[in-house]
Amino acid sequence: xxxxxxxxxxxxxxxxxxxxxxxxxxxxxxxxxxxxxxxxxxxxxxxxxxxxxxxxxxxxxxxxxxxxxxxxxxxxxxxxxxxxxxxxxxxxxxxxxxxxxxxxxxxxxxxxxxxxxxxxxxxxxxxxxxxxxxxxxxxxxxxxxxxxxxxxxxxxxxxxxxxxxxxxxxxxxxxxxxxxxxxxxxxxxxxxxxxxxxxxxxxxxxxxxxxxxxxxxxxxxxxxxxxxxxxxxxxxxxxxxxxxxxxxxx
Length: 250
Prior knowledge:
This protein has helices spanning 21-28, 35-47, 51-68, 75-89, 100-116, 126-141, 143-146, 155-177, 188-195, 202-214, 217-229, 232-246; strands at residues 5-10, 13-18. It is mostly helical. It has a domain at 78-246. Strands 1-2 form a two-stranded antiparallel sheet. The radius of gyration is 20 Å and the shape is globular. The mean pLDDT is 88. Keywords: Heme, Iron, Lipid metabolism, Membrane, Metal-binding, Steroid metabolism, Transmembrane, Transmembrane helix.
């Protein structure tokens, strides 16, 4: 109706929507785009990191994250991640039905947090996970609105954000208490804490890191599995490839 690129005026701001791959590529490669300026207000709204602190930390934290998560370093995470995924999928059994989106969330959350944040740092018991997932799902679902709008318009989102920040006060305390001196033994969260200027903002950056780790990974995993399951030829090929490595164990 409006074409591949269109702008609307709402809440006193102009929102421009880019809906095609070519337009997105042109936008991200534009010399006029300043990433820090583009996301600073969204980060402030989403995790309450003030502009001054954001500009002070962004370059250093970005370099650290890019280095730790580079392709040459990913092997350091893959073993732990596979072990965690296997452990959390083991209870599924061999038959029955369930909601695929719920399954992906339930399996990926504990696997990812135990890999990036350290085992036992975030809540992973069934009762704690249920409360966490309710708050995180609300936080994640309304993130796009909340990153642009005042919190007073989104009371339930604001409540979940405060709950998550409170949780991360404990998460950060435990991560700092167990922070090893050897670089190789540190978790990604501990590396973040070592490089952060303004330690009082550690829970805010911890929440931002968790959101960044989950927000795209969950829908990508969901749609990948949905695509494989809805295409019999692709499903059979994937199962053949798996069987060639792991054998036909069922």
